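Worked example

This section walks through a single chain of length 692. The input is the sequence exactly as stored; nothing has been trimmed or padded.
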Amino acid sequence: MLPRRALRSGLIAATLALAVVPALVQAQDERRRPGERADRDSAVEAPATPSERSTQRQQQPAAEPARDEALQPAVDRRRPGSEPEQQPQTTPAVERRRPSGEDATPVLEPGTPRATPAVERRRPGQSEANTPTRGGERTDPQSPVRDRQPYDFNRATALKPVPKPGRDAEYGKETVRNDRWFLTQRLGITDYPWWDPYNQNTLKADRPVFGDWFFNTLLVSDTVYEPRSLPTPVAPQGEEDPGNSDLIGDPDQTLFAQTLAASFVLYRGDTTFMPPDWEFRFTPVYNFNRAEVEQNRAVRINPAEGRTRNDDFFAIQELFVDYHIRDVSPQYDFESVRVGIQPFNVDFRGFLFRDQQLGVRLFGNRNNNIFLYNLAWFRRLEKDTNSELNDIGQSLRRDDIFVANLYWQDFPRRGFTSEAVLLYNRNTEGEDAPYFNNNDFIERPASIGLEKARSYDVVYLGLNGEGHFGRLNVSATNYLAVGSADRGVFVDRGTDISAFFAAYEFSIDFDWRRVRLSALYASGDDDPYDDAETGFDAIFENPLFAGADTSFWVRQNVPLIGGGVVTLSGRNGILNSLRSSKAQGQSNFTNPGLILLGLGADLDISPQWRISTNINQLAFADTAVLEAARQQSGIDAMIGTDASVSAIWRPFFTQNIVFRASAAALVPGKGYEELYGDEVAYSMLFNLTLLW
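Given that input, the structure is written out below as tokens.
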């Protein structure tokens, strides 16, 4: 038997064991993660959850550093002799630590699992001292984690890290004007030379010059060399061959012109979606021209001045201020007014009035740019004779133009724009003294018929359109001219004006080819001695039609020899108006009119090369006026066939350098032969345009 004292001690120990062991087991189970096996023989304890770690750190003494569980392995709490439980070898996420002084709790990237880190693997030969660890820190196994310093810059980009501001940081607002325009320049990635127009350039309005004001510069060089052969009248005096009784002399001529233009624009506002708030534009132009002819008195009225003429002129082609009055809708529909010398084109193709004149223009749009309108008044400037540039040194002409037009986009169907035009031309120059040009030829009144000064009032009603219907491209222009004149060209009494004009062009694209069909009709006067003038004439035409200035009939001014000192067709004009000139003469509604039927093609051989061809058949609408002027009856209506070809070369695929060459010939018809003979007239054009 055991002693009573030993038995008592054993009972006390057993009682204590029965009370303490269950409590220890319960505490062990509570430390396990939710859903983890309650196996008492588990060898490795899983890492605690973030909330548990936070609680554990709060319970630690303040002097004890927090454990970096991403860099140090978990503590092994296995029982002696037990087998470890397999854990996944998951690479821990990079931790971002807050700056010193804040809670040092590691912050994981969102969605990154926390697991026991894998065993560190180094490359062969790599020492432990120079092995970088995750988070951009160098690993030193001998030093605690808190002594490891991160790199002070990113080795890939060389950018230094920006520390995260503290919780008590104060934020302020600072406005940096124009920083978005100059930011790339300050970073040194858009610091291009001033002469480079293709990249960020202050002279090209890519950045403001001050505040929200921008400055844009445009420089143009236009060089023209033009040999031609066209009817030239024999001089009544000073002729080298006095025995020659012909009316037509040597037709060969050569023209050279060099034009330099600069446009300076200062404007305020962002023009991405709306016009500028203010715009000031100044465009000076210098022109030098040289003409060489083989016939006396062809370039100047005085034959003693020879057959060569050199002339130069400085002009101001644009000088205006543009003010943005208001926006009328959230879509930036607007109203603006422009005052000064400004460009204006009444219609799509420049048939009626396309010029740069002094005036006031109110313009704007409505209904998300569906409707566009212009209300304008212009007082015409005199032109220089040889360059046809504005001559602001002379008094204004007594010739006023009042115009209102309305564009309706996507009408009558999408892709086609319709236009309605109402224009009133009031000319009172019949009260002025005769006007002679710089070559001493008379301009007003025109030297034809009575050769008396005249005034007129004409209203033009137009209905035009430009666009496409499916694959068919359509351009349509229609004008009705009605009015009155205080004196006719051949009758010394008041006349009524009633004339009609129509021009249509249809084209279809076949890949890189466009085929065009052109048709034009300008009414002619069938009786120059009655009280009605029925020949159509424009104000200042510059048409883009039927080959434009590559066509012989459009490009050249063919004089009416033996019927007056006027031209049958003006330079860069298509109408047979019998005016002294397009630039300085008056409109003339007593003319033979024109019928044109043409076929052409534009061939885009490459992005650099375009070839254009055009053949136009020309005829007079009525020859009664020609018969009266020439005192020659029975003139046939057929003018002839105008054939032209042109090539355009853009070596850099842009409009900065454009070389153009063209050749045109007029094969005479019966009517042309009766006026000028059967010699073929021709012209060639070589044009180089440089743009900056």
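What to look for: The chain has six helices and 26 strands.
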